[in-house]
Structures are given as structure tokens and as C-alpha cells.
Amino acid sequence: MNSEKIWDHVEAKRQDYLDLSDRIWGMPEIAYTEYRSSAEHTAMLKAEGFKVTENAAGIPTAVYGEAGEGGPIIAILGEYDALPGLSQEAGIAEPRPLPGSGNGHGCGHNMLGSAALLAATALKNWLEETGTPGRVRYYGCPAEEGGAAKAFMVRAGLFDDVDAAITWHPASLTRVDEALSLANTRLDFTFTGRASHAAAAPHLGRSALDAVELMNVGVNYMREHMPSSARIHYAYIDAGGVAPNVVQGKAKVRYAVRALDLPGMKALNERVIKIAQGAALMTETTVDVKVLSAVSNLLGNTPMEKTMYNNMLRLGPVEFDGVDREYAEAIQATLSDEDITSDYRRCGVRPSETKPLCDFIVPLDQVGEPMIGSTDVGDVSWSVPTVQARVATHAIGTPGHSWQITAQGKAGPAHKGLVWAAKVMAGTAVDLMTEPSALEAAKKDHAARVARTPYECPIPTDVEPPIQPRPADLAA
User: Fold this and answer.
1) Is the CB of residue 264 less than 8 Å from the CB of residue 226?
2) CA distance 439 to 103
3) In order along the chain (476 residues), what is the average pLDDT of each group of 10 residues?
4) In this structure, what DSSP letter does residue 80 have?
5) Which DSSP helix (H) or strand (E) runs through 286?
6) Which residues of 42-61 are buried (b: 16+ CB within 10 A; e: fewer)?
7) For the chain, first and last CA: distance in Å?
8) CB 159 within 8 A of CB 75
9) How many Å separate Cα 325 from the centre of its chain?
10) What is the DSSP string of 122-165?
11) CB atoms within 10 A of CB 309
12) Can you give the three-state secondary structure of 2-13, one letter per residue?
């Protein structure tokens, strides 16, 4: 079968991309600063013979490469951004941050991009070997963690000619993604008041910090009157200084507003903005509101989900060994029972007391308890038919965005899951290219969903990606 042939192409390149994943793990860069990581992916694309476009959508750390001729265009999406505050030594089961930036790959994007590029490379080589009409396009996407780079890339038209998109994410249980995510906006609220001496002349001051705190209180009261599926979080960006004897003249707070869909998110945004305006009115300050980024909820695609699931079944579960299980057990010893059972509940699977790693594939129709985050893959899914895999790369129960994820990022399960994910994505792409009815069904499903609710980019047209400067040691 074509899937078995494409898996051979994955195997032929596996070590190169395991090495790439480990290199990216060792250079963790947060949103829009992924200059080194992007350069590594760009170099691999060029070495493999892809036609490369850098500075994609005007984002210096975004890149894509294309190979093949004629036929449908299948996109495979990769990521390589890290998270702040999750630095961690690899291969151990205790928190031990590394010296340096403090960043860490606590969501496994070092694996995500490497497996996606491995799948794209295998597909490129398979197309050349078989002479099959079709093109593969690898997208190196930065800033998934709150930066919404894919939404900017969709807005710039980079997916206008794509027929279907495939991606994956490291996980603790292996399954086809349920295509359930929250639309998400990040907004900065900057309050400006009047500084003064807090003891000698407090009556002359107008505290921007008071305004932020009143806004937070107002939003916290609003939580009682919003959908239970919605989420709102905030973080102080500037608390106005460290001197208590000064009335703070400026303060900034960042909000993330999430809802099941774009209309719900926009309605919540308006309510949060009104609360900010009320806080400014109460404190006689002014408030400036700035949208930083926004992403859409995921749009499912039943035919592509079935195609991916069939590839998973043909491949069989990720095969782990005794060393893998021993390390996973050590990681699980750092977790709570609730951490572990939550993973199972999310997928609707009965918990097992004896499985440190997932050695099964969650059935496609299995319904679990919703525990929903956000991703900019959502905007791609509104633009083209999209499917996503979740593949076991770490111990069951490991929380996302944790030091434990960083610690496991170069271990045996990570490497085995990475290669397995590449095979599933490459096999899914081959099926879409060689079975016209499969791709046609995916397009019909997508068209029907979008017809009910046409896509509108959630990022205002005047908002540009928050490009960060190139490090001095990488300057041309």
C-alpha cells in the first residue's frame, strides 16, 4: 500500500529529524523571537531540495517550502516556539531549570515542527519516486503560544491555494484531535492617571493601578454571568512601579478572552472593554485598548478525520520499550492522581493504573470531558479542510505547559512518538493525493460548514504581527 511505502521514506530520514528536534529543544525561543529555530528549519528545507519562501506573511520567523508538480496542494503545519519560565534539564524527573533565558519547550513544539517537516520530506521524496502529481507545502509557523501567527498567515493569503492541511501535537494519549478549541483574543489595557506623592498630596493623584484592580474585580464579578465554557485570564504587564509612596500614573494589564466561537468571543470582548471603561471612569483615568492577537475556534472535518484514523489503525499504536516506561513512571511519581485521571477523562477512556505510556489508539467516536484550550490552527481550519493528530510522546497525566513536558522533550517516548506522528501525517497526505474521492469529500464537508458561518479573520485589519528584533549575534 502507498501508506507502507511512505512510511519507509519516513524511516529513511528519521535520525536527521530526531536530531533537529533535539537541536530546537536546546534553543528555546518564545513567540516571534524564533530566529534560530526558524533558521534550522529553513536550512533543512533547503538541504532537502524544497523551494523555500522566507519572511512569510512579512514575519521574519515564518517560512514555507514547496515541492512537487501539478495535482492538489497538501499543507503540513509545523511549529517551533517555546514558553517562558519552563526551562528544565532533560531526562530527569525533578524540577531543575537550566541557566540562560528561562525559556523551555513545555508544549513540545520542538517535536511538532520536526515531525511535520519529516512528514513533508517523506511526501516530497515519495512524489518524486512515484511520479504522482501533487505538491507538498511545509509551513514553519512561529508564535502559536499566544501570537496567532497562523491567523496572520491566513489573513495574508498564504493558504488560498491549499487543498487540505495536516498537523499534529505532542500528547499523552494517541487519537485524532476532536477539533474542539476556544476562540481567543489577547488585549492590552493601558490605564493612564496622574502620579503624585502618596502621603503628602494623595488628593492630586489618580491611580492607574487602582483602575487595573477595579477592572479585575469587575471582570471577576462578570464570570458569574457568562457561559460556563468561556474563559478569561489576566496578567499584570506593568503594575506601575515598586514604590508604595507614589501614586502610580500608568499601569497595564493583559487579558485573554476565550469562548466556544467567534461571536461569543466578540460579545465577551465588548463586555470586558466596558468594564475597563467603567474602571477608568471611577478613578478619573483614561484607558487605551489594544488587540494583540486573536484566533478562531477549530473547525472539524469528518472525512479527513476518518482518513487519519484509518492510517493510525494501519500503523498500530506507538511502540514503547521498558526504558521508556521506567522514565514515564518516574515522571508520573511527580504528578497527582487527578493529573492522571484528567487525561483519561478528557478522552472518555477508563483510567488504567498500570499504563505509564499510551499503548493504544483512542477510538474515533470516543467522547470525553471537554478540557479546551486555544490554537491558531483554528484559523487554518476555517480556510482549508484541516485535520490534526494527538500522539503520545510523554507520560500519561503530564500537564501541558509544565516542566515535566520540557524534561521529556528529548527522551525515548518523544522520539518514538515524533516518528510515528510523521508516518500518520504522511500516510494521510498520500491517501488524499491518491484517492480523489477522499479529498473531494473533505472539501464538501468544509464547504458545508463554512457556508453556515462564513470565516472572518478575528484580528483587526490594522493590527500587525508584533515582530521582535533579530538578536545582535544573528544580525546580517
Assistant:
1) no
2) 40
3) 84 98 98 98 98 98 98 98 97 96 97 98 97 97 95 97 98 94 96 96 96 98 95 96 95 97 95 98 98 95 98 97 98 93 85 85 86 91 98 96 98 98 98 96 97 92 93 74
4) -
5) strand 286-295
6) bebbeebebebbbebbebbb
7) 47
8) yes
9) 27
10) HHHHHHHHHT--EEEEEEEE--TTTT-HHHHHHHTTTTTT-SEE
11) 21
12) HHHHHHHHHHHH
Q: How many CB atoms lie within 10 A of CB 203?
A: 8
φ, ψ of residue 170 to 5 degrees: the values are: -55, 145
Q: Residue 322: helix, strand or coil by DSSP?
A: helix
Q: Which three cell numbers stand for residue 168?
A: 499534529
The number of residues making up the chain comes to: 476
Q: What is the sign, positive or negative, of the torsion defined by CA atoms of 161, 163, 165, 166?
A: negative
Name the residue with cell 467603567. 278
Distances (CA, A) of 476 to 38, 334, 469: 15, 45, 12
Q: Distance between CA atoms of 185 and 179, rounded to whole angstroms?
A: 19
Put residue 466 in one of left, alpha, beta given phi > 0 → left and psi -120 to 50 → alpha: beta
* Residue 451 CB contacts under 8 Å (≥ 6 apart), including other chains: none
Residues 368, 342: contact at Cβ < 8 Å? no
Q: How far is CA 30 from CA 72, 107, 143, 210, 420, in A?
A: 33, 12, 7, 31, 26
Place of cell 533565558: 101
What span, in angstroms and rounded, lies between the C-alpha atoms of 130 and 103? Answer: 43
Contact between 50 and 124 under an 8 Å Cβ cutoff? The reply is yes
pTM over 0.85: yes
- DSSP single-letter state for residue 194: B
**Alpha carbons 23 and 202: distance in angstroms, whole number:** 54
